[in-house]
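Homework help thread (please don't just give me the answer)

Our assignment gives two proteins as sequence + structure token strings and asks us to describe the second one. The first is just a warm-up. Here they are:
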Amino acid sequence: MSQGQAAPTKAGSESHLIACAQRGDEDAFAQLYELHKRRVYSLCLRMTGDVAEAEDLAQEAFLQLFRKISTFRGESAFSTWLHRLVVNVVLMHLRKKGLQQVSLDEVDPSQEEPVKREYGDDDRRLLSSVDRITLKDAIDELPPGYRAIFVLHDVEGYEHNEIAHIMNCSVGNSKSQLHKARLKLREALRRGQGRLGQTDRHRQEGFSDRPER
């Protein structure tokens, strides 16, 4: 490459791959798969909490992508468009399973103001006292609607306007669902902390009851 020739950007390279894949280039689609497979699988896993389901849903998402990539018009970032497709695949799967749902049409008017990302002191102490398994279990207990928005915002780092586009809901609705998800997480983590406290007390009582030698 000559010194005066600019190196292709990642976005430019991806745009070229997308254009080729839309024309039926299987090699280009395979490269898109390699670029996005880990994040797609990670999103499926966080939304389902099940490794086997996440693997199946990631495959289904890429099958959907193969069928629908010709409909991508570049009106949003490809990653945002792809994540919306993945979220729809996961939510459809959860609906078929008949799991507890939270309608994204249920907007709490009191939550139209931005929900602060910062946790309070009580939450920091609480989060520091539980392990990752307890946190993962608490996230897995969230209804799918709450879990999807919590994962997209607090884990994946999307803004509310991006989530609204991915989930096909309003910005106010996204903020409301995130607020409710965090409340449910705090309750679940406090229950987990209580169970850990009881276990510790039982262990201490068990040691105190042992006869001295």
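The one we have to describe:
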Amino acid sequence: MSFLSKLFLPIGSLVDRLICVAFAVVLAQAPVYMAQYIDVLSGAQMEAGKVYEELSVAARAFDLEVDPYLDKLAENADPMVRSNAEVQQNSVRRYRRYTEALKALRDRSAWVRPFMLMRHYDPSIHAAMDFEPNVPLTIEGAVYAGLGVLLALMVMAFFKWLAGLIFRKRPTVYDAYEGKLPEKAASRSQTTSDPKA
């Protein structure tokens, strides 16, 4: 090992540890993010639910369900009524979407929840969040932190392998004479370089 290799070995080890810690901290935020996302989604679903309940009361006054009631409003000759009906239909769709997403996120286990979040992800809910990172002192947080360390090790191993592949010094005929090659490789190199062989 050269002098420079010995000099930078502790620094390399420190960088490896820092990368592992960084990956662990980032992945440990996943349960924190999901919990805050569910809180905001719950509030949005509750607000949309109030609108849906008001529409239900109005529809029952005409012995109708919400959807047929809004369909009749959408067929009205007055453009203002039609426009209002379209707004209310969007509210109903949003309420049902939020309800489905909230049920999927709450009813599934912690290990399935990330996939449910990707399936039901809503940019408007994310935009309404005021995400605050913290350290989750839970088993779920510890598992995600462990996965972060494992991922960091895999990424570093890949890049080290790739760097070794790119910058690896290829053996030459001269290395055989200087004793830098194994015995078999050296004999092959000498045989190739000797015209009498």
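TA reply:
I won't write it for you, but here's a hint about the kind of observation we're looking for: The CA atoms of residues 49 and 95 lie 6 Å apart.
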